[in-house]
Design brief:
The chain has 549 residues and is an alpha/beta fold. It has two domains: 3-45 and 106-293, 3-Layer(aba) Sandwich (Rossmann fold); 301-546, Rossmann fold (3-Layer(aba) Sandwich). The protein has 20 helices and 23 strands. A nine-stranded mixed sheet has the order 13-12-14-15-23-22-21-18-19, with helices on both faces. The chain is globular. The structure holds glutamine. The site of glutamine has 10 residues, from β19.
Length: 549
């Protein structure tokens, strides 16, 4: 559709936009702020959706290292997206699709593909209007499709980054297209406390705002990212120095528990003031009771359950952020603190049986997460073997299920060299292999089984009881599958394939019959766990682990 037609359509809508940018440095928690604003609005009765604009040139984060970029989050429709979409879905209890994840790479690709297809009719193609229009078109189409009260947009990166420019220009133009009061620009910026000077400093934030001004923008609201409450003096300084409405300067305080942010922002009247800014005559109050209850639960839990997350990436939680959040929510549901020990799988490979026993001595449950390539695989197998032999709760996710299968094949079926063809193409016992139709695919990126698939559950199985349903829908991100050739052999020895994608007869869940909780899923249940509603599998896993205390 023509951009002018889109503008006219959006103008007629009720939808309002709030765009959040970050100032001074990264890791301020823009995603959490966006979610927090979303919670306040949603709990006031408004409908909300979210978009992430990522300035990087990758088309999607699917091919980026999890250590650099964190987890790849997958939506129902199979888009590989930024981990922030996980925060939005978990905290806001909403479902997003590929339209919520936009990168510079996608925008440039769209424009350049258009050029090759002759869409630009011989004209020269420019950043303004062509690239910026591509961004606006996506925003307006999103707005028309979702038709919600508020669309929240997070711009990744930090103001001043070169690649952010096209998105800021889009924001500037949207304000012109729709009118200034249809889009609020909220800037989250660091105000560091200097211990040696006993002072909170506003200068870096002032510079960040100057950078925005150079792009023709001024923040409508300012959130000061701070470890300590700021004073009126500080806020006045920013009001006078940067010309930001005094009523719309807030603290974004460092807190212990994420939900405390929602309450703190509400106490600062963020919700009311945002609504007023948009000209809403009778601003509504947010009903935050369930969040208040959750904070109470979270701060009164006493017991601790130790979970070993046997992983490839150690040093940052970001590669496993959804799993960590799912475990935490399950802890809340079970009224127990979850202490997660991220264990480097490779370390286990070199250990003796005795030191492995010592190592897992205080552990109440083992989780083997998803992963790609062979690094650490043998260590993960060691962990699975320990869990099986010692009746320790084990949850295997994606690769974690494949590991459980390989371990079982080697130890119980006596197929000593069994493995996945991902790790050894010529293995004699390929208990895990590529789906037939994908055998010819050698291009990385976008070739996986991605997104939601239906899974039928065996009624009397463990998962059948845990879910309490006969059909579930879960999200996937993998290439390899259980090899049905071995199915009978496994079943004879006590493996139950309790979840099947019937259409293609693919194993989705395996569980060991004579084990209290040894379950592997080919899908990723963590993607659907919510902050306030823990996922049934994680909930049961933590329940079983708690019994080990
Ligand atoms: N590497 C495995 C596969 O592609 C598992 C993927 C995953 O754990 N996400 O099937």
């Amino acid at each position: 559709m023509e951009i002018l037609t889109l503008i006219e359509k959006v103008k007629k809508q009720k939808t309002k936009f709030i765009v959040v940018t970050g100032g001074v440095c990264s890791s301020l928690g823009k995603g959490i702020l966006v979610s927090a604003i979303g919670v306040l609005l949603k709990k006031s009765g408004y409908s909300v959706s979210v978009i992430k604009w990522d300035p990087y040139l990758n088309v999607d984060p699917g091919t980026m290292s999890p250590l650099v970029h964190g987890e790849v989050f997958v939506t129902d429709d199979g888009a590989e997206t930024d981990l922030d979409l996980g925060h939005y879905e978990r905290i806001l209890d909403i479902r997003l699709t590929k339209e919520s994840s936009v990168s510079s790479g996608q925008i440039y690709q769209e424009v350049l593909d258009g050029e090759r297809e002759g869409k630009y009719l011989g004209k020269d193609i420019q950043m303004v209007p062509d690239v910026v229009n591509a961004i606006k078109r996506r925003l307006y189409n999103f707005s028309i499709k979702k038709d919600v009260d508020f669309v929240l947009v997070e711009i990744g990166g930090t103001i001043g980054d070169m690649e952010i420019g096209i998105f800021l220009e889009a924001v500037r133009q949207v304000k012109i297209d729709l009118g200034n009061q249809r889009l609020m620009l909220a800037h989250l910026s660091l105000v560091p406390y200097l211990k040696w000077a006993h002072e909170i400093k506003t200068k870096p934030t002032q510079h960040s705002i100057y950078s925005l001004r150079r792009m023709g923008l001024a923040p409508d609201a300012l959130f000061l990212r701070t470890d300590y409450k700021t004073t009126d003096k500080i806020k006045n300084k920013l009001f006078v120095g940067c010309g930001i409405n005094r009523d719309l300067i807030f603290d974004a305080l460092t807190v212990k528990l994420i939900p405390e942010i929602f309450l703190d922002l509400d106490e600062q009247d963020v919700n009311f003031r945002i609504q007023k800014w948009f000209g809403i005559q009778k601003p509504k109050k947010a009903k935050l009771l369930e969040w208040k209850k959750l904070i109470k639960t979270m701060s009164s839990k006493k017991d601790i359950v130790n979970i070993a997350l046997v992983a490839k990436y150690v040093g940052s939680n970001d590669p496993y952020i959804s799993i960590i959040n799912a475990l935490m929510s399950a802890g809340n549901s079970n009224n127990v603190n979850v202490n997660i020990e991220v264990v480097e799988a490779e370390k286990l490979e070199k250990m003796t049986a005795l030191s492995i026993k010592k190592f897992f001595a205080g552990v109440h449950g083992i989780l083997v997460p998803g992963g790609f390539d062979s690094r650490g695989v043998e260590g993960k197998i060691v962990a699975a073997r320990y869990a099986r032999k010692n009746n320790l709760p084990y949850l295997g996710i994606c690769l974690g299920m494949q590991i459980m299968i390989i371990e079982f094949a080697r130890s119980i079926l006596d197929l000593k060299t069994a493995t996945s063809t991902e790790f050894n193409k010529k293995t004699r016992y390929p208990v895990i292999g590529l789906i037939e139709e994908q055998k010819s695919i050698d291009k990385k990126g976008g070739t996986m089984r991605l997104g939601v698939y239906k899974c039928s559950l065996l009624k009397d199985s463990k998962v059948g009881k845990i879910y309490g349903k006969s059909e579930i829908f879960e999200r996937h991100r993998h290439r390899y599958e259980f090899n049905n050739f071995y199915k009978k052999q496994f079943e004879k020895k006590g493996m139950v394939f309790s979840g099947i994608y019937k259409k293609e007869n693919l194993v989705e869940i395996s569980e060991i019959k004579d084990h209290p909780f040894m379950i592997g899923t080919q899908f990723h249940p963590e993607y659907l766990s919510k902050f306030l509603k823990s996922h049934p599998l994680f909930k049961e896993f933590i329940k079983r682990a708690k019994e080990q205390i």
